[in-house]
Specification:
400 residues, alpha/beta, eight-stranded parallel sheet, six-stranded antiparallel sheet, 11 helices, binds alpha-D-galactopyranose
Length: 400
């Protein structure tokens, strides 16, 4: 009797007030998503090959685990029973078998849904079918749901995302819930108890600082996404991260730009979701995406998003507090041309504007580890003199 009472006490608050699964994203989720490169052109073989590449090419070892199928995986209509059906031409073995394959590699399986009547690619959305779809996803072994916001006129975002959160929770299967309303409804203000991450921008474009105008909507280059919102870093942290979108590393930018992009996503504690064709990535791209020193800055347990400390001419200085009073510092050259760069640490006292972290380099000395050359060298007691290539970064981990 006592046992039953304890069990009831544990579950009832969740049933009455609703809740999301705990402890699914203590640090930003890491994985791969089909959209940026493959769009509607997805199939079972591709996804299996990506799972194989995760293991063979070191992505799993570097910490990536979610393999997420984006939009356009289903048939254009539900079946007579109102169920979503995976397109048998694209996924002949069905989603459960594919999920089993992914799980057999020690990886996790993610899928895409939409809060509206239809997805952005015009496939059936989950509006009115939330419980049915959540059950189906859970029965397939889904571990991550990206939930989009197309075709939602009249819907209240907080309510719609709460409905799906509750449907997921009711299945009993822990499923990461990725909110994708592009920041239109300011999810950072209300989504902490709903999802583990929320997009803060429209879709990313594979360029450093461009805007691609499609008429009714725009896609945004890396730096445009970085600067899309003001004053939202205080809302991001373990179990509820600002999501700067799937990465464009390896989809067309220069090596320097790829390095800067990956650095910024790591510094900003964004989800690290690869968007390139990892089956055919060149060695430079693989080496960027699997840099464990950069990844450990992204995965730091404090989960704090970096802030921009300063502009020094064309160089931006980004700073991220890390556990054990360590820091990550990134110098980003916004120019296309290389710039000589000097930084006299002892002239700088840095105060985190949102969290209680501060460092005065005239009083405290740190050792410098260069995250991209992967070399220890120098201290904050010396003036750093260097050169930064165009659109490139210098990144240091500071420790005692
Ligand atoms: C929206 C999302 C993208 C992608 C597409 C799929 O635009 O923001 O990330 O999921 O839909 O149609």
């Amino acid at each position: 009797m006592k046992k039953i009472l304890i069990i009831l006490l544990f579950f009832i608050p969740g049933l009455i007030f609703g809740q999301k699964f705990p402890n699914l994203a203590p640090t930003p989720p890491m994985g791969w998503n089909s959209w940026n490169t493959f769009n509607t052109n997805i199939n079972e073989k591709l996804i299996k090959d990506v799972a194989d590449a995760f293991v063979k090419d070191g992505y799993k070892d570097a910490g990536y685990n979610y393999i997420i199928i984006d939009d356009c995986w289903s048939m254009k209509q539900r079946d007579e029973g109102g169920n979503l059906i995976a397109d048998p031409a694209k996924f002949p073995g069905g989603m459960k078998t594919l999920a089993d394959y992914i799980h057999s590699k020690g990886l996790k399986f993610g899928i895409y849904g939409c809060a509206g009547t239809r997805t952005c690619g015009d496939y059936p959305g989950s509006k009115g079918f939330e419980m049915k779809d959540a059950k189906l996803f859970a029965s397939w072994g889904v571990d991550y749901l990206k939930y989009d916001w197309c075709n939602t006129p009249g819907l209240n975002a907080e309510k719609a995302y709460t409905t799906m959160r509750d449907a997921l929770y009711a299945t009993g299967r822990p499923i990461v819930f990725g909110i994708c309303d592009w920041g239109d409804n300011q999810p950072w203000l209300w989504a902490k108890n709903i999802g583990q991450l929320w997009r803060i921008s429209g879709d990313i474009a594979p360029c450093f600082d461009c805007v691609v105008d499609h008429g009714t909507y725009k896609d945004w280059g890396v730096m445009k996404v970085v600067y899309m919102r003001k004053d939202i870093r205080k809302y991001s942290g373990p179990e509820g991260f600002n999501d700067f979108d799937m990465m464009e590393v390896g989809t067309g930018m220069t090596e320097s730009e790829n390095r800067s992009h990956f650095t910024l996503w790591s510094m900003l504690a964004s989800a690290l979701i690869m968007g390139n064709d990892i089956r055919n990535a060149d060695p430079a791209t693989v080496s960027i995406l699997t840099n464990k020193n950069m990844i450990s800055i992204n995965q730091d347990p404090l989960g704090i998003q970096a802030f921009k400390y300063k502009d020094i001419d064309s160089t931006e200085v980004w700073v991220k507090p890390l556990k054990n009073k360590e820091w990550a510092v990134c110098f980003l050259n916004r120019k296309k041309e290389p710039v000589p760069f000097e930084f006299n640490w002892s002239e700088h006292k840095i105060n985190d504007p949102d969290f209680d972290f501060t460092v005065d380099f005239s009083r405290e000395k740190y050792n410098l580890f260069n995250v991209w050359t992967r070399k220890q060298g120098g201290t904050t007691g010396e003036t750093m003199k260097s050169q930064i290539a165009g659109h490139d970064v210098l990144v240091f981990r500071l420790s005692h």
